[in-house]
Amino acid sequence: MNNSNLISTLKANKLMRSREEVLAFDDALNQLAKNTHGVDLEKLHLILDDNCLQQEVMWGLVHVLESFDAREQLQALLNVIQKLVISAPEWTEVIHYRIFNDEPTRVLYQEMLETVDLNSRQIVTRILEEVARKGQLINV
């Protein structure tokens, strides 16, 4: 199956409402992880969905995203941030926690933020403020 079909399978099964959907999602993700050449990272980010019933399986997608070159992955994230924050605000925060817990990725992301449009930069600023607020609550 080609990467476009695998992404379509992920999209169709991303809510994982049944065992069949979980298995189809997991199988497509495993196949995609074995051959990431030419994967549309923007579409892959947009698979994330807060309504997914199997969060632990969705974590696999986060790990696959992180397996790509950091610059490519971050650029794709920034390209879809306006959509992603609507469809998956919790997963968007998770990704940002992970970016900012890795110093080289954090520095690169900060550099890249300087080149994005104002709207995307404002969205990321709000996400980071929320992440910081929640982090302070956790540290209390």
Short summary:
The chain has 140 residues and is mainly α. It is built from eight helices and no strands.
The Cα radius of gyration reads 15 Å
Order of helices and strands: HHHHHHHH
Low-confidence stretches: none
Q: Roughly what fraction of the amino acids lie in strands?
A: under 5%
Q: Helical element count?
A: 8
Q: In total, how many domains does the architecture comprise?
A: 1
* Major β-sheet annotation: none
Q: How many beta-strand elements?
A: 0
Overall residue-averaged pLDDT value: 92
* Broad shape: globular
First-last Cα distance = 49 Å
Helix content: over 70%
Strand-pairing-aware structural class? mainly alpha
Per-chain topology:
Layout: H1 3-13, H2 19-34, H3 41-45, H4 55-66, H5 70-87, H6 89-100, H7 103-113, H8 118-139
Question: Which features does this protein show?
Answer:
single chain, 140 residues, mainly alpha, 8 helices, 0% strand, globular
What does this structure look like?
It is globular, with a radius of gyration of 15 Å. By secondary structure, the protein is mostly helical. Helices cover 76% and strands 0% of the residues. The model has no long low-confidence stretch (mean pLDDT 92). The chain has eight helices and no strands. The chain has one domain. It has helices at 3-13, 19-34, 41-45, 55-66, 70-87, 89-100, 103-113, 118-139.
